[in-house]
Amino acid sequence: xxxxxxxxLVEDNDLDVEIxxxxxxxMGASGALVRTRDGVEALTLLREDARKQRLPRPxxxxxxxxxxxxxxxxxxxxxxxxxxxxxxxxxxxxTSDSKKDVCxxxxxxxxxxxxKPNSSSELQDVLSALQNFWSACxxxx
Length: 141
Known about the structure:
alpha/beta, Rossmann fold, 5-stranded parallel β-sheet, 5 helices, globular
């Protein structure tokens, strides 16, 4: 039995959100998908949730880089500097395959870097790998 994979998706593109939702449904993934549109909104949710515990736990953050107000790099740097939320697992999920972006994400302690796939079969492969990783992890209660 696979563990439910709860996701906080930080993504401003509605089409990318819809594609990811369809991919998760297609693979029969269980768990919640909570979406925020940028880094500011995500940090607000996480900081409030650190006190109120409304985001289903455990969860993983899937983070786009190119967003308004606060981009993914700024979000990740801020997140890792905040004692209340610094331990969150974050996978960058973006269209950028730039070496500069990849290096910066890992310097800010991203747990992984995934370039958004170009086809539904590639997306299924990515989601299956993420689900397998999630199932193998020992998650905090």
